[in-house]
Design goal:
With about 800 residues, this protein is α+β, with helices and mostly antiparallel strands. The strands form five sheets. Strands 3-2-1-6-5-4 form a six-stranded antiparallel beta sheet. Strands 9-8-7-12-11-10 form a six-stranded antiparallel beta sheet, with helices on both faces.
């Protein structure tokens, strides 16, 4: 017992429990306890499971645990019930079917390595219990009490042994957890320190190394997969244990693959789109070869790695928020390995979420820098006004490409001039300064023809120029006078030449030169710059076109004003002609009176002379009275003619612009009669009725009489035209009538010109006050009458309105506020 105690106290880790059990069995043999087999059983509380250490036929411990279900054996269940009752010991005498069932249970359920046949007649199980299980021996015959006592004492000692075992196991588990936490913290710290996506390969490598340090050697590879749903591709960062090297080096690499291209990939994608958290995919046969060969095409590290023989592997995958982690092994992995993978996945998921946030923030910052650069390009180019301003293009592009972080050594812009069939070229030197702009014909020999053809097809063009190609271009530039010597262009050309990238936009190509081919992301960014330049340059072109158009419009406007002045004058002259005809008709009456009374007076003077000579004084006096009356009539009609002439002169002369108190009734009556007689004089067949209804209570109003007279005259002329046109329709019972009236409603002075003519169509009613619009046939109206009338009334603070009904007539209303 002391030897067992000493070995128990000497245990340093839980794996030494089996050695302590072996010492226990050896000491029992030394005490003369002869058995067919000895065993220790550990019973799990509230469980049907029992774990066995057992000796072989030589009595020595087999260092192996056998797990069994208590309820599958009647003997095992009896043992279990004795432990539950807290018995000190138990003897089970087996025979017949019970023994047969027990031996079969040991062989088939526990897979114990027995060679004893199933024909034994009797077997006695002597058992002593301790807190966690039992110690037992199997013998052909029952054992004396002394042996049972020895068993009980050894069980008590082993209780101490197993308690120490549990303490060691707990301490080891804690130490193990600390190691795992330390490993996971290393993975977490490395993941959190990532600044670029390609650093994920280092995380995968570290994860595999830490798994190895934790004793998980069954995993050959560790991988991190990030699935891009937008692109339909998956990025993979992996580390692999080099099985070709005894030093077990780790190899790491990165690849971008399409999961739909292989069977293994499709299985991964199926898992990614499912609700599963983890999965194991067996890769064997042709599916395994297809996967390895596909990966070798996308990662140089795997090219020829396995040689001709590609072993089977099982892929174990676990999801995290943005993808999944994977590990390949030659077989199924242990529960601990799964647990470690789960913990690593959880750690990486958190770290990758932060990394994704940083990526988004970085992308936002880059986008802000990009937008700021594009805005500066727009603003700078939009501010260009002259051809000389174009010299600012190349320094501008050079500066913004530098800010955007695009690698380049030269840049420029090629503007295609379709009209002149020229390529206007603006290039920079490596310092960002502009080389003088030059202009090359479309048919210039050399590589420019490819640039031109790609522009016409709106395609990106990339080429590599060596020294000879640049020398050819330098010669062209010298010939064009853009540079004085070829060295100005060739000094900064690298020995091996460089790549030229041309990005198309509407008006030409953006050019960027670099020693290496630019990445796809840089090409996309350059295309954004090109498109922005195109928009801004279009505004520059529009400005130039606008300037040219402005000059043309200004010239046209001057010509139009002259034509308008002539038209207005023509309108006034036409109005004056109509007035003149009316005035001539009006003035004829007083002139006839003057002529007639003059002739009569001459005859009377002859008669008076004769009467005086004959001494007929009374007769002479009577004749003298008649002459006096005639002279008075001559004077009256002369003044009448004078007033008519003055009115004509007043209408024909330019308005003074001075308002004066005017009798609006008299003004309307005068211009009505002038219009009427003018039309009668102009057209002998003209005949229309006119009426007046004047409000005598209206006081004189403050207006410019010449201007308002023109307005009234124009409205009356239009009214007479409307009734004349309707009269031509030969409507039975129709009598053409024009009515001019004045009134003073609600604080306004109103002049109305009404006719019962043809009216104004509703569809043109909104246009009648527009300049140059007329409903009269070509040659009969200028379209300025109503427009000028409207402006004159507005200038007086009044309003000109119309009420009309097609086929029944119109009424124009002039309103002036009473001041």
């Amino acid at each position: 017992l002391e030897r067992v105690r000493a070995r128990t106290m000497a245990m340093h880790n839980s794996s030494e429990l089996a050695e302590t059990a072996a010492v226990l069995f050896e000491q029992m043999i030394a005490l003369g306890v002869t058995t067919v087999r000895s065993y220790i059983g550990i019973i799990t509380e509230n469980s049907d499971e029992i774990e066995f250490w057992t000796t072989g036929e030589d009595g020595r411990l087999i260092n192996h645990l056998f797990n069994g279900n208590i309820r599958k054996s009647a003997t095992m269940f009896k043992m279990y019930e004795g432990w539950k009752r807290k018995s000190k010991s138990l003897t089970i005498d087996q025979g017949g079917k019970e023994l047969e069932e027990y031996l079969r249970y040991l062989s088939e359920e526990l897979h114990a390595p027995f060679t004893i046949g199933l024909t034994q007649k009797r077997r006695v199980q002597s058992i002593a219990y301790f807190s966690k299980g039992l110690i037992g021996i199997a013998t052909p015959e029952p054992q004396p009490e002394e042996t049972i006592t020895i068993l009980e004492r050894f069980a008590a000692v082993f209780d101490l042994t197993y308690t120490r075992f549990l303490d060691l196991q707990k301490a080891e588990a804690q130490a193990r957890q600390a190691m795992i936490e330390a490993a996971m913290e290393k993975v977490r710290a490395r993941a959190m320190a990532m600044q670029k996506p390609n650093e994920l390969v280092e995380v995968a490598e570290l994860l595999r190394r830490e798994m190895g340090l934790l004793g998980v050697e069954e995993l050959e590879t560790s991988s991190i997969y990030i699935h891009d749903e937008a692109k339909g591709t998956t990025e993979c960062w992996y580390a692999i244990q080099d099985i070709r090297d005894n030093e077990k080096k780790l190899l790491a690499d990165y690849m971008t693959i399409n999961l739909n291209d292989t069977w293994v990939g499709r299985e991964m994608l199926k898992f990614y789109n499912s609700d599963q958290k983890q999965v194991s995919i067996l890769m064997q046969g042709e599916n395994r070869k297809e996967w390895i060969n596909y990966c070798a095409e996308h990662s140089k590290l795997l090219k020829g790695y396995y040689g001709d023989v590609i072993p089977e592997r099982t892929y174990h995958l676990l999801k995290f928020s943005n993808g999944y982690m994977g590990a390949a092994s030659s077989r199924d992995i242990s529960k601990e390995s799964w647990d470690l993978l789960k913990r690593a996945t959880a750690v990486f998921s958190l770290a990758y979420t932060r990394f994704s946030d940083l990526q988004i923030a970085e992308a936002s910052a880059k986008e802000a820098v990009k937008q700021a650069a594009l805005d500066r390009i727009r603003a700078d180019i939009a501010s260009m006004r002259t051809i000389s301003d174009l010299d600012r293009i190349t320094p501008l592009i050079w500066n913004e490409l530098t800010i955007l972080g695009i690698p380049f050594i030269r840049c420029g812009v090629f503007i295609m001039d379709e009209k002149q069939q020229l390529i206007h070229t603006f290039l920079s030197n490596p310092e960002g300064k502009a080389i003088a702009a030059f202009h090359l014909p479309y048919d210039t020999p050399g590589n420019l023809s490819k640039v031109l053809s790609h522009w016409k097809e709106h395609k990106i063009y990339t080429d590599h120029w060596d020294q000879s190609a640049f020398a050819e271009m330098a010669a062209i530039l010298v010939k064009q006078g853009a540079i004085t010597t070829p060295d100005q262009y060739l000094d900064s050309i690298p020995h091996g030449g460089f790549y030229l990238h041309f990005l198309p936009f509407l008006q030409g190509m953006l050019y960027v030169g670099n020693t290496t081919h630019l990445a796809d992301d840089d090409i996309k960014l350059l295309q954004s710059v090109a498109d922005t330049f195109s928009t801004a340059y279009a505004r520059y072109e529009d400005f130039n076109k606008l300037e040219t158009a402005k000059q043309q419009v200004e010239k046209t406007l001057v010509d139009l004003k002259q034509a308008q002045t002539q038209l207005v004058q023509s309108e006034k002259m036409a109005s004056l002609g109509e007035l003149t005809a009316g005035i001539a008709h009006e003035i004829q009456n007083p002139l006839n009176f003057v002529n007639n009374f003059s002739e009569v007076s001459k005859e009377l003077l002859d008669e008076m002379k004769e009467a005086i000579e004959n001494g007929e004084a009374e007769e002479a006096k009577g004749i003298m009275n008649d002459i006096i009356q005639n002279l008075e009539k001559i004077n009256h009609h002369g003044k009448r003619a004078d007033a008519i002439v003055k009115g004509m002169l007043q209408h024909s002369r330019t308005s003074s612009g001075q308002k004066e108190l005017t009798d609006i009734n008299g003004l309307a009556d005068e211009y009505l009669r002038l219009a009427y007689h003018g039309l009668r004089a102009k057209e002998k067949s003209f005949n229309a009725k006119f009426e007046t209804h004047f409000d005598d209570t209206i006081d004189k109003i403050n207006i410019i009489p010449q201007d308002i007279g023109r307005v009234i005259l124009n409205l009356i002329n239009n009214a007479f035209y409307a009734v004349t046109e309707k009269k031509k329709q030969n409507i039975e019972g129709y009598e053409p009538t024009v009515t001019v009236s004045t009134a003073k409603p609600n604080g306004f002075v109103e002049i109305r010109v009404k006719d019962n003519g043809i009216g104004i169509p509703q569809k043109v009613l909104d246009k009648i006050f527009q300049p140059f619009f007329t409903t009269k046939p070509t040659g009969q109206g200028t379209g300025l009458g109503l427009s000028l009338a409207y402006d004159i009334v507005k200038a007086h603070g009044g309003e000109l309105k119309v009420e009309t009904k097609e086929g029944q007539g119109s009424e124009f209303i002039i309103q002036f506020p009473v001041v």
